[in-house]
From TrEMBL:
This is AraC family transcriptional regulator. Residues 182-280 form the HTH araC/xylS-type domain. Keywords: Activator, DNA-binding, Transcription, Transcription regulation. It comes from Agrilutibacter niabensis.
Amino acid sequence: MTVLVNVPSADVHRGARLGHGAFYGDYREQRQVGALALAEMRPTVPEHDVHTHTHDDAHFLLLLDGAYLSTARGMPEVCTTRALVLNPPGTTHRDCFRGLDGRFFTLSIPTDSWHAATEYRKLTQDAMRLPATALVLATRLWHELRNWDGASSLAIEAGMQLLLDAAAQPSPSEQDGPMWLERAREQLHDEWRRTPDLAELADTAGVHPVYLARAFRRRYGCSPGEYLRRCRMERAIALLHDRSKALADIAATCGFVDQSHFTHAFRRQHRCTPAQYRALG
C-alpha cells in the first residue's frame, strides 16, 4: 500500500497546491488502488488557518460528520448533513471545516484518469454537490475502505466508474429544451409528495398529454412517473441519515405505499435495503 502524506498546518498558506491524495487533515484509514487514493480523515487545521488552495487532481469528498463550509454548486454555506461533493482537477477553493470535530472520506482520481473518463461521459468543470442517490454509492466505497478484503480493490474501481456516471452532465441537446417541459419537470420536483395525472402535467405545460410524455422521455431519459419516483427516493435517502426517523415513517413521508414497498424499491435501485444502508454509518 502506498502511504499518503497529509498536509501539516505549517504548510497551510494562501495559494497552496495540494497534490494527489493530499488534504488538510489526519488520515485514519487509507488505501491505494492502482492510481486511485482513498482515505478516511479528520480535519486538523482550524477554519481561520485555511486559505485559498488548489487541488491538482480530481476527488470526491463525502462529508460524514461535522460542519463543512463549501462553495461547490448545490451546497449550503455551512453543511451539517451527509453530502457528496465532486471537485474536478484544478479546483481552487477555501472549503474547510468549522471546528475540528468532523470526519470525511475522499476518493482521489489522477488527472489522466479523469481525462480518460471524459471520453465516455460529459463531466463537470466546476465543483458540485451530487444528488442523494450518489450518497449510497459513495457510502458503500467508504464501507469498503473500513472493511477491506480481497475483492475490495475491484469494488472500488467499479464503484468509482458508477460515481462518475452519477456525476455525468446531460449533453447540450438534453440541456436545451422548451420552457413548458421544464415547468412540468419542476412541478414533479417541487410537489413530489403527491402524484398528478398526465393530464394535469400537460395542462401545466400547455401541450397534449401524449406529446408531453414523449418529449419528457426524450429529454430526461425517463417517464414522468419514473422521474417522480427518483425525486421521492432522493428525499428518502436524505431522511435515512436521521436515525430518529423510523423506516415506516420515511416510507409514508416520501410517498411509498408502505415500508415493504420502500424497501423493495430501494433494494432494486441500490442493491441493499434502507436498513442496510443506514447500518453502514
